[in-house]
Amino acid sequence: MKNSKMDFEKLSEEQKNIIGKEKVHMLINGVAGNGKSTTLLYKMIKIMMSEKKRQKMLYITFDNILVSDTKRRALMSPEFIEYKDCHDINICTFHSIAYEILSKIGFKGLQKMDSNIDTIGKLNDSIYAKLYSVWEKYTNEQSDTYKELKEDERLSSFHDVNFLRDEILWMKANGYIKKEDYLKSKRNGRPNAPKVLESQMNTIYNIFLEHEEKKTTKYNENMDLEDYALKLFENFSYISKENFFDYVFVDEAQDMQVMQLRVLAKLAKKSIIIAGDLKERIFEKNVHSYERLGFHIEDWQVGSLTKIFRSTKEIAKLANSLKFTDIENKTIADIENMVNGDRPEIRYYRYRKDEILFLIDKIKDIHMKEKGATIAVIHREEKKVLKGQKTIIQAQLEAEFNLIGVKNYSKNIKKRKNPIFYIDIYSAKGLEFDYVFIVDFDKEHYPLKEKIDALCEHYKKQNVASNDYYDKDFGNIINEEKRLLYLAITRAKKNVFFLYSGGNEKNSSPFIKEFDMNDYEAYGFNKEDDAEEKSKAEKNLLNLFS
Description:
nucleotide-binding, ATP binding, seven-stranded parallel beta sheet, Rossmann fold, UvrD-like_ATP-bd
C-alpha cells in the first residue's frame, strides 16, 4: 500500500503530460501498476486547484474497498486537503450514486450494495430463485405455455436457469431491453454454447418480460444490480440539474458496464475522464466499444501510460509475457530501466503439507526482515469461502498469523500484529501488496478446470460437428483466465511466489509455458523441460482438457 505523501513533482513526464492536457474528455490507457489511478486522482486535484468557482465532482471506482483506498490516497495530498472544501467532491461506487439519485426521483425497491464478489454471488442466487418458475413454465412439456410454442421457439435442455440468468443480466448491462435491439445484438461477451437461434431469442425475451413483471408484482419492485443504470438512463429527464456533476472521473473503467458508462457520460456537464486497462477486465459481460457507449473517440484526448512503477522489472516481465488474443498486447516502455528485484519463484511440492510449511516459513522470514511488509495470499476457492467453508491453507494460516480479509485493506493495520490478507482474485482488483503468494498454480485452477469441463460438456451433448464455436469459447475462457492470473501477479510490488502441490511436477498451470524460463526461479521441477514446448503453448492448451 502507498504510505508516502502524494507529490506532483514525483510524477513521471507521461503522467504530468496527461494531467496538463486541456481537452474536455479524456481516456487514460495503461497497464497494471503504471499509475492510472494516481494520474486520474491528480487530474481531479489539478482541476480542483484551477477552477475558481465551486464545482461538483464525481469520482467513481469499482467497489467500496477502492473507494476507501482512493479517499486515503487523496488525503495524502496537501493540495487535495487545501482545496477539498472549495468544491463538492463525491468519491463513491456507481451503485452508491445511482442509489442516491434514484431515491431522489422516487424509486422503490432500492438497496445499498457493493459491487464485490460476495454481493454479486448472493444476488445471482436470488435471481436464480425468482427466475426458476418462469423458466419452468416455458420448458415443462406439460405446461400450456410450452405447448403453444413453435418447435423452433422451444428452448433446449442447455438453456437452463443459469444460462437465462446470465443472458438477462447481459441484456441489461448492455442496454438490450427492447426486443429489436436484443434480436439484432451480436452477442459480444456471451458464449457460443449453448447455441441460440433467433426464434429461441423470442422465447428468451418473453421470459425476460415475465421476470421483470414478477419483480414488480411479487417481489416489491426489488431491483437487480444491472437495473440501476437502466432506470437512470430511462428516467434521465426526471433527474434535476442539481444531481448533475461538472466533472466525472471513472477509474477501473474496463469493468464498468456499457449502461453505467453511458449514464455517467450524460451526468457530466463539462467533462468525463476515464482510466482503465483491458488486461485487468474481470467480468466478461462488460465488453464494449466506445461507439456503443455513445463516445466519438475523435472528440477525446487519449493519454497512454507505458511505464510501470508498482512492480519490479522481474515481476513486470513475467506478467507481460502472458499473451491475449482478444486485445492488443502492448510493449512496456523502458522495462530494462525499471527497479531490479528478485526473480519470482514457482515452487512444486509433492505434498500439500510441505507447500503450506514453506508458505508459513517464508511469511515469517519476510516479517523478520521487513517489519510492516504487506502480504497477500491469493486463492481460487471463492465458492468455498462464500459458503463459509475454510480451506486447508486458510485454517493453517489462521493458526500462525493474524489473517484478515480485503475489507480491512484501507484501514490502519499497523496496530495489528503482522496481518496477512487471504483473498480471492476478484477481491484483489485495484490493490497492491509488497509480496503476493499465488496458491494452487496448477492445471486445476489456472485455467479453472470446472469452466473447461462445463464447456466440453455443452459441446459433447450438443454433438456439434464444427469445432469453430468450441475454439472461440475455449479461447474466451483462456483469455479470461489469463487476465485473472495477470491481475494476481501485478498486485505484487517486491516479489510474487507461485505454489502448487500434489500429483507430479508436470501438474503446473499450462500458462507457465508462456513465461520465459529466465524470468523465474524453479523449485521442485526442471524448467528446462518446458522450454522446447513454449512455442506450442496454445496447441497444448487446446488439447489439455479434450
